[in-house]
Structure formats: structure tokens, C-alpha cells
Specification:
Elements lengths: L3 E2 L2 H21 L5 E7 L3 H16 L3 E7 L5 H13 L5 E4 L9 H7 L11 H9 L7 H12 L8 E5 L6 H9 L6 E5 L6 H5 L4 E4 L17 E4 L3 E3 L2 E3 L4 H4 L5 E2 L6 H17 L1
Parallel strand pairs: 1-11, 2-3, 2-4, 5-6, 5-7, 7-8, 8-11
Antiparallel strand pairs: 9-10
Helix pairs in contact: 1-10, 2-10, 6-7, 6-10
């Protein structure tokens, strides 16, 4: 059996087309949509990722505001930059690119962003609204994954979903979104200290791998016919690797997202969606 490929590029193109129309409709009413990024330091992966975000924003008519600070910036420098963006009328959504350089508090920087400009959906206020099932900007990566599952008509209700990883960026909000009323999966939150992790993963009808270990999830972790979503972005001498051993697992799963070309484009598309909704 060879798995269906869940292409984030394909779904992102659909999302961006919708966002482009929404931006044009807002512009006709005199509402400008602007996405700002704050990047601190010289991390190559972060620079590449931020450049992609701005390219995506411009492609749908969103004004792109790019703010960079040197690696020796202090926490106060970061706070001041966030405050300035909070005050700008042309910024309707913004993100602090994580991780910040060593010695800086990334969570404190995210919390400094106004909840009404939180394009990443990671401010504690907005995460709290997610827990309560209230509307607000959703964490970008889990939101993008939900859009992928929806686009490919993958049934979630009544299924067992295993999320491997518990970060506030992906794992915890992903588990909440899969299990919330109206989505109705039975969710298991697993992690690196879960006893017999492979056996737990084999219970999954939908397996989301967000553990940050290259190609850790091989065929022994996957129930035949499961849907596998790979969130991993691990850089190596062989290029970008996911958390899933793609060539092996694709022979067991019914559907699988690749790396690259899977979750990454959808994370960026979800940022655009949040930015437009915040502007509206």
C-alpha cells in the first residue's frame, strides 16, 4: 500500500486564494491589512522562514513589515520593538519569530504582543480562549493541520488521535483542537516520556508527530491505514527531515504529509488567515 500524499502546498494555495479575496474586500472598505514580523539574531532557518512569510503576505496583498534586531539585543530592546509594532495602525497582525537567541525570554516576548494583533495565536489570552472554546486567533500550525485534514475529507469525529509532543507551539493546542466539541476525536497526548510510545502511537487513526526528533516515527509506530501528519522540521546534512521516516511509513499509512511541502506552507497560510481576521 502506498499512502495518499497530503500536500500542504496544495491546500495553502486554496487558503491564499481565499485570503486574497478577503484582503481585496477589506481594501475596498478602506481597511489596510498588515503583517509584521520581529526577528532577533542571525539564525539561518529563522531568516529563511521569515522571508517566506513576507513573500506569502505580499502575494495576497497584505502589507509586509519586517523588523530585525541584532543577536546582542536585550530583553528590553525586544519589548520596545514589540511595543512599537503594537502602536502602529498599519500593523493588524504580528509575530515574534521563535526561538529567540539564548538568554532572551521568548514566551515573555509573545505575551507582550497585544492579543488583538496576535497572528500566531500563541498569546496566553488567546490560548485561554481556545481552552474555553471561544473564538479568537488559533495557533498557526495546529490550525493549518486542521485545514489540511478538512481539505482531504479526513474524518476526525469518533477517531482516535495521538499527538506526539506537548509544546505550547504545537502539541498542546493540537490536542485541544482535535478533541474540542464539534471535532470530537478521542485524543491521547503522548511525549518522549510516554511508556511504550510505539504501542500508544499504534492506537492512532490520526497520528500527529511533533516531537522534534528526525525520522523517529517509523513503521512500528503506525497502525496500518492510519493518517500521519509530520510536523517535524529537522535540518541535517541530507536536507530537511521530518519526525517521520517517510519512505517507510508511507507504505503503512493511508495518508501522510511530506517534509518539506506539508505542514510548513499551511502554518504560513494560517498566519495570513489570522492576520485578515484580526484586521476585520
Amino acid at each position: 500500500m502506498s499512502a495518499q500524499i497530503i500536500s500542504g502546498k496544495t491546500v495553502a494555495a486554496v487558503v491564499k486564494d481565499r485570503v486574497r479575496k478577503e484582503v481585496a474586500a477589506l481594501a475596498a472598505k478602506g481597511v489596510e491589512v498588515g503583517l509584521a514580523t520581529l526577528l532577533v539574531g542571525e539564525d539561518p532557518a529563522s531568516h529563511v522562514y521569515v522571508n517566506y512569510k513576507h513573500k506569502d503576505a505580499k502575494s495576497v496583498g497584505i502589507t509586509s513589515i519586517d523588523v530585525k534586531l541584532p543577536a546582542d539585543a536585550t530583553q528590553d530592546d525586544v519589548f520596545a520593538a514589540v511595543d512599537e509594532l503594537n502602536a502602529r495602525q498599519d500593523v493588524t497582525g504580528m509575530i515574534v519569530q521563535l526561538p529567540l537567541p539564548e538568554g532572551l525570554d521568548g514566551e515573555a516576548a509573545v505575551e507582550r504582543v497585544l492579543p488583538t494583533k496576535d497572528a500566531d495565536g500563541l498569546h496566553p489570552f488567546n490560548l485561554g480562549r481556545l481552552v474555553l472554546g471561544q473564538p479568537g486567533p488559533l495557533p498557526a500550525t495546529p490550525s493549518g493541520i486542521m485545514s489540511m485534514l478538512d481539505h482531504y475529507n479526513i474524518e476526525i469525529a469518533g477517531k482516535v488521535a495521538v499527538v506526539v509532543g506537548r509544546s505550547f507551539l504545537v502539541g498542546r493546542p493540537m490536542a485541544l483542537m482535535l478533541g474540542m466539541k464539534g471535532t470530537d476525536a478521542t485524543v491521547i497526548q503522548a511525549h518522549s516520556r510516554t511508556p511504550d510510545l510505539a504501542a500508544v502511537c499504534r492506537q492512532a487513526d490520526i497520528l500527529v508527530a511533533a516531537i522534534g526528533r528526525p525520522e523517529m516515527i517509523d513503521s512500528q509506530y503506525v497502525k496500518p491505514g492510519a493518517v500521519v501528519i509530520d510536523v517535524g522540521m529537522n535540518r541535517s546534512d541530507d536536507g530537511l527531515l521530518g519526525d517521520v521516516a517517510f519512505s517507510e511509513v508511507s507504505q503503512v499509512a493511508s495518508a501522510i504529509s511530506p517534509v518539506p511541502g506539508g505542514v510548513g506552507p499551511m502554518t504560513r497560510a494560517a498566519l495570513l488567515t489570522n492576520t485578515v481576521r484580526l484586521a476585520r
